[in-house]
Amino acid sequence: MEYEVKKIHNSLTYEWLLKKHYAKRKCSISYAFGLYRNNELEGICTFGSPASHSLCIGVCGKDNKDKVLELNRLCINSNNHKNSASFLVGKALRMLNERIIVSYADTSMGHKGYIYQATNWLYTGATIERTDIDNGNGHSRHYNKNIDYSKRKHRSSKHRYIYFCGNKRFKKQMIKELNYEVQPYPKGDTKRYDCIDIKWNNDGLF
After folding, report:
1. Cβ neighbours for 49, distance < 8 A, ≥ 6 positions apart
2. Is residue 67 in some structural domain?
3. Which residues of the chain have pLDDT under 50?
4. For the CA atoms of the chain, what is the radius of gyration?
């Protein structure tokens, strides 16, 4: 396989986040990785601080809350090999040290999380559908006097996956402290959404 994964500057992800990913907005980015084929950027994967403070505590307890990151964006151009997304995720995970990674597969987009299943994440069930405050940019965590708090937005159920990065000792300890029940992987049909492909070269790499 002619692919390689490299750490990239956050700015290289912006076009992907705003034009290709279905959320169409930027997100918190602590680490960004690019999938390269013949020196051209064919996909991105980003990790950042979860928006929910309670999630950080809830995964493995208060003592481990600062270790929690969310794999919050994953985009791959359509003309790549079937396993290129799992290749990118797997390589990126191995480049992170002693971290608790959370990610979600959105049921409203027809996602089951097969990429996470292929890279051996733990499945811990689905979140509950809900409505919360819509401030116009997808977040509603903090009070803002300019927000109309009467406006509500539907939040779909999402499949929740957990992965522990680090050595065997760390992983074993985190599994003991995991507060979610590990469940069988969800199965069934999945679907793709229509989106443009992004073309970049390798300028801007660390």
Report:
1. 28, 30, 56, 68, 69, 70
2. yes
3. 139-142, 154, 204-206
4. 17
The CA-CA-CA angle for residues 3, 206, 17, to 5°, reads: 70
Domain that holds residue 33: 3-135+151-177
- pLDDT number for residue 89: 97
The residue assigned the tokens 């799992």 is: 86
* DSSP-derived pairing of the beta strands 68-76 and 99-106: parallel
Phi, psi for 78 (deg, rounded to 5):
-75, -20
**For the segment 50-77, what is each residue's pLDDT rounded down to a tens digit?**
988 999 999 999 999 999 999 999 999 9
Give the angle 85-165-92 at the CA atoms, nearest 5°.
Answer: 30
Q: Give domain status of residue 206, yes or no.
A: no
Q: Quote the tokens at residue 191.
A: 């679907």
